[in-house]
Amino acid sequence: MGNINDIKQIINNPKTVKTVGTVGIDGVPHIAVKQTLHVNDEGKIQYIELFESSKSYRNITGSLWYAKKVSISLLSENKESYEIVGYPDQILISGREFEKAYTETLETKGYDIAAIITIIPESVENNSPNIKFAEQDKTRLFYKHLDRLSKDNSKNN
Question: What CATH number does the domain located at 4-126 have?
């Protein structure tokens, strides 16, 4: 299990592919790319939601109301992969922080925003292929059995 500060530079890198997975109150999962995702100074994850009518916004609002978890998936430009699970903490639709993000997004990208979503990370898991293959090699009982049979057969021949 990792720490959010250990991967902060990956999350905040604009070249990292970032997705947020939510579940609607009807139980239907939804995953969307959210390139506006970053770690703030408090170690919480934030992303700027651009559309009031998006499924992500609707689902994450339900997750906030009913204390349901969300999942964030990252794929760095170096092919490192992480999953972060956490709880939505707040949704800002006004105030100084919202106004600052609204103005910056309007000036740099040319469009307005719907909200700033804050998520408290609960767990960070490294899903990078090299890590998963190493874990798998430790528990490959079937292949260990085949290796042993192969060794036994070579001794008998």
Answer: 2.30.110.10
